[in-house]
Specification:
CATH class: Alpha Beta
Protein name: Dihydroorotate dehydrogenase domain-containing protein
Number of helices: 10
Number of strands: 12
Strand order of the largest sheet: 4-5-6-7-8-9-10-11
Distance between the termini: 22 Å
Oligomer: single chain
CATH architecture: Alpha-Beta Barrel
Structural class: alpha/beta
Largest sheet: 8 strands, parallel, barrel
Cofactor: FMN
Helix content: 25-40%
Pathway: Pyrimidine metabolism; UMP biosynthesis via de novo pathway
Order of helices and strands: HEEEEEEHEHHEHEHHEHEHHE
Length: 306
């Protein structure tokens, strides 16, 4: 039976709490991580792998870098709207999990005011984040191009000044939301790609309300192929040194591999953790893990979905 929109907050909360608990337990018996031959370098940062958790699953940093114990090389915290940085749990070797922070401002702000507030959030979270993700409302609405350009340049210049002042490298990724199966929303991509951004995150989103039925729509191979085609178009329109990140609908090793083959540098998941369990990362990365026993021993109380 499909879970209605009214039930989803509880489902998501329970999935998140379970992920936090499992991140502090041992790995399933019979499995050890295969250490990469060399770190994956993206946006000037070193990631232990290309799989991450998208913003919205961990809104406060409670799971934080402990997500590395679930197999993830990165996690985005937020959306974050407070003028103080989140307290991000975990960190340090051997997990090597990087933490991005997704910053957001309420939609009621004018473009200029939103940009000023985003600058404040960038400065507040600068030292806590390995990278930052922005999705300004003026990128999503019918903002006049001169105003859009002025605000984007202001954010890029502010990031450059902070990096110069502090000596810290903290990439900024700009997020674009696309309707799965459509390329009609790619109009801004060539312009953004021309601005020398650190990264662009393509988020494939059916919109609200999101239910388990929406999640199951991703089982369609034709839809998955269409999304990969869109990523191929994005990659062709972007400079090689601009990172391409993506999320939306990834729930298997094959889909993860297909997104990478389509040109994505980093792939994020969210709803796979909600509807398939906290071991979703292990399942997706299974070809990249070394299994000491052909049959993985069941551990129902910890990793029930294996």
């Amino acid at each position: 039976m499909d879970r209605s929109e009214s039930q989803l907050p509880d489902v998501r909360r329970r999935a998140f709490e379970n992920a936090c608990r499992q991140a502090l337990t041992d790995w399933p018996p019979g499995i050890t991580a295969r250490a990469p031959e060399r770190p994956v370098t993206c946006m000037g940062l070193s990631f232990s792998n290309r799989l991450g958790i998208a913003a919205g699953f961990d809104r406060t940093g409670k799971l934080g870098k402990n997500a590395g114990a679930l197999g993830f090389g990165s996690i985005e915290i937020g959306s974050w709207q407070r003028s103080v940085p989140p307290q991000i749990a975990g960190g340090g070797p051997p997990r090597m999990t990087l933490a991005g922070i997704r910053l957001a401002v309420p939609e009621t702000e004018t473009p200029e005011r939103e940009t000023d507030r985003l600058k404040g959030l960038i400065e507040a979270c600068w030292w806590s984040a390995d990278y930052l993700t922005l999705a300004p409302n003026w990128l999503k609405t019918a903002t006049a191009f001169p105003k859009l350009h002025a605000n984007l340049v202001a954010l890029i210049e502010f990031r450059r000044q902070l990096a110069q002042l502090t000596g810290k490298h903290c990439p900024i990724v700009f997020k674009l939301r696309l309707t799965p199966g459509s390329t009609d929303d790619l109009g801004l991509l060539p312009y953004l790609a021309s601005m020398g951004l650190d990264g662009i995150l393509i988020c494939f989103d059916f919109g609200k309300p999101f239910t388990e039925k929406s999640f199951r729509r991703w089982d369609c191979q034709k839809l998955q192929a269409s999304v990969c085609h869109t990523l191929e178009l994005c990659r062709k329109r972007m400079p090689a040194d601009t990172a391409l990140l993506t999320n939306g609908g990834v729930q298997s090793s094959r889909q993860y591999r297909d997104r990478l083959n389509a040109g994505a540098d980093l792939v994020q998941v969210h709803n796979a953790l909600v509807f398939k369990g906290a071991d979703a990362g292990y399942r997706i990365l299974q070809p990249y893990l070394r299994v000491t026993n052909r049959r993985i021993p069941a551990t129902p109380e910890k990793f029930s979905s294996w």
